[in-house]
Design a protein that fits this description.
Largest sheet: 11 strands, mixed
Mean pLDDT: 87
Low-confidence stretches: 1-6, 14-27, 148-171, 553-563
GO molecular function: arylsulfatase activity; metal ion binding
Radius of gyration: 23 Å
Family: Belongs to the sulfatase family.
Protein name: ARSG Arylsulfatase
CATH class: Alpha Beta
Keywords: Calcium, Hydrolase, Metal-binding, Signal
Number of strands: 20
Shape: globular
Cofactor: Ca(2+)
Length: about 575
């Protein structure tokens, strides 16, 4: 696929000219969007949130020049479901993505789900994704190719821009992609970085076979993709942050020069392990602190480019996919005050994979000079689910029909006109006790109800805690008990007063989901789906400038312009 004689940027330019000619006209100037998603970042990893953190001067400046959201939540507390919800505005029980995809996954985010990139592209946007994808990389689930497939060309001909003999055009989700198809610990590298437990480097030709480690990928090297081409395998982790910054700057420059509005989705490798800080750890900050500083500098670089090239019309939104990975101990992030004390007392983690606040309450900053108030702190109950409908509304586009959305258009909160968000927010199980994807906790105003707790999310000491079902549910008042330490007494007036409202909200949510147009993700695995640059070489290693193109199984009946 692709046109080998053209650079990725030349191919991108041609495709966007064709799409832009047929994009619907939108009155007014559409804003640019930069969405930065950190991986496994803790609420307390920002100095603006937690005074003990000193490694984030650029993010703290972003907070000072924009609005900080302190009650902001991921839609799930693990990678794939959270990212699927971000890009669809729908919970995993609706979009079908309830747990993580594997390196051999044949499927991904269901193709009948419409992503934010698809909506914005149809509204005339240049769309780029840089970084971790983790929503399926095989066939049409690749970020360049997912969506409704290739158009017949009739629409373009009707616009008068294609003749009867012109090739068909692929209307893909993202015009440009540069990054890794899944987490950067899901493949070996030559310089593995810091991890717990440590993982060995990739095997080389002629080396003796090693005993496989449960927590390490030793057989297949981690690939780096530019569009559908593997450009490096294994990835050089130490330079990945720099390459992401360079590609992001290049995309912003290109989009700015093209005159079209752009959407850049930058999904960082930070702060997921293994950590590869560019310099030795600074005393008192440790490895994690050094890596946090690297992430902060990367965000600062993107802001600088946006300020320079975004023409004063660029919204930058920074947040995280879920809370810290507690079992990584000193290599995990900072929870701030959200320690989930009730669970900790019984063993197990209260962070990533759980429905405790530390698992899904994440940092969030929005910066848009002249539009989003500077130096403001919002306490509105918001979610990563809100990004989809909010950006769609700001772009002057329409939400896809025939489905329900869990996110809200929170433009009025961004602009400081309101501080009211969700009345009810649902928290699905992301790998702890219960069935993955099912709604196991619910937020109603300041009250948090748990129907299932424990087992599945490992703490630093190796404990997981007992699995427990709660009927009636545990209920915490977060206004008084942000550490989630002591649930309300079931016999108390407060508990009895709030339980009926919580029960109604829970029942209504389940009924709404059951009646919706829900999708089912394909979680089957196929060894042929593993990205491999050179099947003849141990670990799929590429030699020098050797590259390989992924097989996206596109029908070859007619020549097509596909990225």
């Amino acid at each position: 696929m692709g046109t080998p004689s053209l650079s990725p940027w030349a191919v991108l330019g041609l495709a966007l000219v064709l799409v832009g000619l047929c994009a619907p006209c939108v009155v007014g100037r559409q804003p640019n969007f930069i969405l930065i998603l950190a991986d496994d970042v803790g609420w307390g990893d920002l100095g603006a949130n937690w005074a003990e953190t000193k490694e984030t001067p650029h993010l703290d400046q972003l907070a000072a020049e924009g609005t900080r959201f302190v009650d902001f939540h991921s839609a799930a507390s693990t990678c794939s479901p959270s990212r699927a919800s971000l890009l669809t505005g729908r919970l995993g029980v609706r979009n079908g993505v309830t747990h993580n995809f594997a390196i051999a996954s044949a499927g991904g985010l269901p193709l009948n789900e419409t992503t934010l990139a698809e909506v914005l592209r149809e509204a005339g946007y240049s769309t780029g994704a840089i970084g971790k994808w983790h929503l399926g990389h095989h066939g049409r689930h690749h970020p360049n190719s997912r969506g409704k497939g290739c158009a017949s060309g009739d629409g373009l001909r009707a616009c008068g821009h294609l003749g009867p003999a012109d090739p068909l055009v692929c209307l893909s989700g993202f015009d440009y992609y540069f990054g890794i198809p899944y987490s950067h610990d899901m493949g070996c590298t030559d310089t593995p970085g810091y991890n717990l437990p440590p993982c060995p480097p990739c095997p080389r030709h002629g080396t003796a076979a090693r005993v496989a480690r449960k927590d390490c990928y030793t057989e297949v090297a981690l690939p780096l993709l530019e569009n559908v081409t593997i450009v490096q395998q294994p990835v050089e982790l130490g330079s990945l942050a720099t390459r992401y910054a360079e590609e992001a700057a290049r995309f912003i420059q290109w989009a700015s020069d093209s005159g079209q509005p752009f959407f850049l989705y930058l999904a960082l490798a930070h702060m997921h392990v293994p950590l590869t800080p560019p310099l030795p750890p600074i005393p008192g900050r440790g490895i994690y602190g050094a890596s946090l500083s690297e992430m902060d500098a990367l965000v600062g670089r993107i802001k600088e480019v946006a300020d320079s090239l975004g023409k004063g019309n660029t919204l930058l939104w920074f947040t995280g996919d879920n809370g810290p990975w507690a079992q990584k101990c000193e290599l995990a992030g900072r929870l701030g005050p959200f320690v989930g004390a009730w669970q900790r007392q019984r063993g197990g983690s209260s962070a990533k994979q759980t429905t405790w606040e530390g698992g899904h309450r994440v940092p969030a900053l929005v910066y848009w000079p002249g539009r989003v108030p500077a130096g403001r702190t919002s306490h509105a109950l918001l979610s990563i689910l809100d990004i989809f409908p909010t950006l769609v509304a700001l772009a002057g586009a329409a939400l896809p029909p025939n489905r329900c959305f869990d996110g809200l258009d929170v433009s009025s909160v961004l602009f400081g006109w309101s501080d009211v968000g969700h009345k009810v927010l649902l928290h699905p199980n992301s790998g702890a006790a219960g069935k993955v994807g099912e709604i196991e906790a619910l937020r109603l105003a300041q009250y948090k109800a748990f129907y299932t707790t424990g087992r599945g999310a490992m703490a630093c000491d190796g404990s997981t805690g007992p699995a427990e079902r709660h009927q009636p549910p545990l209920i915490f008042n977060l206004d008084r008990d942000i550490q989630e330490q002591e649930p309300l007494d079931v016999a108390s007036r407060e508990y009895q007063a709030v339980l009926p409202a919580i029960s109604r909200a829970y029942a209504q949510a389940l009924q709404d989901i059951a009646a919706d147009n829900v999708s089912v993700a394909d979680y089957s695995q196929d060894p042929a789906a593993v990205p491999c640059c050179n099947v003849q070489h141990m670990g799929c290693r590429c030699h020098g400038a050797q590259e390989a193109t992924l097989d996206l199984h596109v029908q070859k009946r007619t020549p097509r312009l596909c990225l």
